Amino acid sequence: MNKKKKKLKKSAKIIIIILIVAILAGLGYLFYENYQEQKRIEAERAAYEARQAEIAQSHLGKFSNKFSLDKGAKKRLIAFTDDLYRCQMEIPRLYNKNFKYNQEKIDRILPDLSKHFATGSYTEKAVCRTALRFSLTARALAPFDTSLEKCSYDIKIRNVSGDENGLKIDYYESAKINFRFIPDINSQMYHIKNSIVLKKQDGKWKVSKYYREEDFYLAVINDYDYSAHTKDSIDKSLDQVFSKLMKKNIGNTKSYIKDMQAFNSGEFVDKPKSCDVAYDRESALKYAKKYVKKRNTKAGWAVFDDWGGNCQNFGSQMLNAGGIPMDLEGSQVWKYYGTTNDNSNSAYGYSASWAVAPSFRYYAQNNKGYGLVAKVDVNKFAAEAGDILQVGTGKDGISHTNVVVGTVKDSKDRTIDVLVNSNTNNRINWPMWMGLSKYQSLVKIYGWNK
How far is it, in rounded angstroms, from Cα 151 to Cα 153? Predict the structure, then answer.
């Protein structure tokens, strides 16, 4: 019995020693893991701070044309525009399935606009800040990193008026951008109309008024109540605008993610409409790339930039280049024979469906017999080069047409975005995600019937 007891005691001691060693090893491992995690966090923080310092010192823009303009005014214009881009270079990742987010994380990266705007221009400053806030918050909720990996822009002065105390400057802004989630894709926006009023204050040029033809900015000014005059009423009104726009944007984002998941899981499978002649996507894509910057007037096409926009005119030209013929038959026509608006069945003028985005949508949706064969409101991730992606306030509020030039795949070969080109506003290889301030609708092109 004594021998058994001694063996049991010895075994118990061994077990206790093993347990102690295991516990100490576990604690050591946890300590090591914690140490490594702290090192990782510190490294990330150091990298982030170094990136912020680099961003703060970066000069992203230049003037692309020679124009007589006060040096101080030029300096203010570049410094102001630099700040508009710098805040886009490190956007927090806030995506989650419930779309709950910490607004403070976004507000921390907003630039200090007070150093640019004149005293007495609080409304203009607050509107600009809200537009930036809306853009950055919407992008922070993306399922991928929409920060700018690289960016450069140029300013082309169109007109300057005023004197040494006040200047109104109209200019085009163009930018070359590489988004972090598609770093190898060269995205561009060009000839974006801007207008700024500078006035002298304490010997320095300051921004008095600012206008920009860009989706997020226009979304804010279109909803803002300019009857507000006190700081509190201005802030309250813009907070309401921001909340309304974010609610709409989150709804559009949910629809985007739902479509993406349905397409990539195989839940959605497009059932093509039958047609006599298939669409020549290759020819359509070549046209969409060749004429996105320059207008094809040599072929006899009119330019609609100053007549409400050239977007659908560009889209219709692309479809025609892909083999879709003019359609003069039936109640739905689609044609271009001249610069007079004419919706008859004669080979004269141009139809609204050729040049106006919602009218084209109606034609694509309702045409029967001869001409275009297409389907409206198809899953956006089924897009192929040569398709049409339209945006607006809703199905009955389409206002702009983009042409599809490609898709974006992730490392698992899943489609996560669609790239578009467009006229007025002018975009090249632009991610569909960047248009989520609006309702989006894919018009799927199949071909045409004889």
Answer: 7
Closest to 143 in 3D by CA, of 99, 112, 204, 184:
99
Q: How many domains does the chain have?
A: 3
Q: Which of 34, 57, 80 is the last residue of a domain?
A: 57
The tokens of 57 are what? 């010192």
Rounded Cα distance, 365 and 84, in Å: 40
Q: Between the CA of residue 262 and those of 70, 163, 273, 446, what are the distances in Å?
A: 55, 59, 20, 21
Same domain, 281 and 234: no
pLDDT tens readout for residues 223-275: 998 888 899 999 999 999 999 999 999 999 999 999 999 999 999 999 999 99
On whether both 256 and 316 belong to a single domain, the answer is: no
> Which residue(s) pair with 175 in the sheet?
153, 189
Q: Which string of b and e fits 225-260 if b means at least 16 CB within 10 Å?
A: eeebeeeeebeebbeebbeebbebbbebbeebbebb
- How far apart (Å, rounded) are the C-alpha atoms in residues 85 and 132? 10
For residue 127, pLDDT beyond 90: yes
pLDDT, one tens digit per residue, over 197-206 is: 999 999 999 9
Determine the number of helices (DSSP H) and then strands (DSSP E) in the chain.
Answer: 10, 12
Q: Between β-strands 61-63 and 426-431, what pairing exists: parallel, antiparallel or unpaired?
A: unpaired
DSSP-H helix ranges across 65-200: 71-86, 103-107, 122-140
For residue 367, what are the domain limits?
271-449
Query: In 199-275, which ranges are continuous DSSP H helix?
Result: 215-223, 231-265
Q: Which two tokens stand for residue 9?
A: 């005691």
Q: Quote the pLDDT of residue 20.
A: 79
